Amino acid sequence: MNKVWTNIYTLQRPEIEKKFSIVVGNDLHFHPNLKTEKLNKILNEIAKFSPEYIMLPGDIISYTEATESTYERNRLLKLFQEFGEIAPTMISLGSHDYYKKEDKLNPTLDKSLYHQINELPNVQVLHNTHYIDDRIYVAGITQSYGYYHPGDNFSKHLIKPVKEDKEVLLKDLKGHLKELRNLPKDKLKFVLIHSPIHVDSIEAQAYLNEFDYILSGHMHNGCVPSFLLHFWKSTRGFIAPNGALFPKNERDTLRFQEDKLLVNGPLTTFQPDSTLKYYLNELFPAYLSVLEFTKYSEDKENKKIPKRTLYR
Fold first, then answer.
1. What are phi and psi of 189, to 5 degrees?
2. Rounded alpha-carbon distances, angstroms, from residue 92 to 95, 122, 201
3. Pairing between strand 136-141 and 129-132?
4. What's the confidence (pLDDT) of residue 153?
5. What is the pTM for the complete model shown?
6. How large is the average pLDDT for residues 113-132?
7. What is the enclosing helix (H) or strand (E) of 172?
8. What three-state secondary structure class fits 123?
9. Which residues, including other chains, have CB under 8 Å from residue 223's CB and lie 6 or more apart?
10. Distance set, CA 27 to CA 90, 102, 180 (Å)
């Protein structure tokens, strides 16, 4: 049974009148072999923190066929319904959310699934849309298929990993300017964007600079084994999803009060199409982050973020 590794960050903001918290989880990679026991473990861990919000930046399913059966679809919908019963839940989409296992050359979103999720109380799929209330503004940006597979050449990707395409990301961001500009100044502003690769570039930041925090996943904590988690303090991981060794910004990127990017570890490290690697999931925990927001204190400006970790 997977344990849950939770990093809890205390963040100071001048906008905060009353403290509140957000739980971040991503890369669930839901599929028929994902045990309900693990889903309940994740749900129970989130509930323990009594958060005001839950945010899930992408890769909710492993492939679109994963929820074709009524049983599996209802199992996933029940999970999200229970999330919504804990707190308002915002979901963005990642690469696997439009990945077709049996027809790799024709990726597509299962619009009926996301319509059903949006009908659940307190749950929203932010597919290039936003959520707003009296405290926060949240935009969800879907990076297009061409971003993850440049040239739309999936067959090449199967033979040799390819780098994600910054120019496609910039085109995506430009196409969604209305979600990225003229944001309310009296609220904390978040953008959910699945892959953090290139979001820290000067060009991307020109589009994202109004946001206070960028919440991402995708990097799978660099596949750092659980027995090293207490010792591996670097933001670099062992290996990236595209096969790069020791890449930067894989994990634990939120370290100082001025930092904006959170790269969260995965709820499921290896998806089922990872063949034999899938069975290594029992050796890796599910990851959560808890962002605890408190009132700004001048004597701690630009200092390191207090952080504590639970592993249970």
1. -120, 125
2. 11, 15, 21
3. antiparallel
4. 47
5. 0.93
6. 97
7. helix 166-175
8. strand
9. 237, 238, 239, 269, 284
10. 14, 20, 24
* Of 5-9, 74-78, 116-120, 302-306, the least confident: 302-306
pLDDT in tens, 25-51: 999 999 998 999 999 999 999 999 999
| Residue 209 · residue 223 · CB < 8 Å | no
Average model confidence (pLDDT) for the chain?
89
Closest CA to 90 of 43, 30, 46, 140: 140
Cβ–Cβ < 8 Å for 85, 51: no
Tokens 């979901």 correspond to 91
Q: What CA–CA distance (Å, rounded) separates 310 from 312? A: 6
Encode 192-228: b = buried (16+ Cβ within 10 Å), e = exposed. bbbbbbbbeeeebeebbeebbbbbbbbbbbbbbeeee
Distance, in Å, from the CA atom of 34 to the CA atom of 272, rounded to the nearest integer, reads 9
What CATH class is the domain 4-311?
alpha beta
Identity at 267, one-letter amino acid code? L
In tens, the pLDDT along 189-245 reads 999 999 999 999 999 999 999 999 999 999 999 888 888 888 888 888 888 777 778
Q: Dihedrals φ, ψ of 90, to 5°?
A: -115, 135
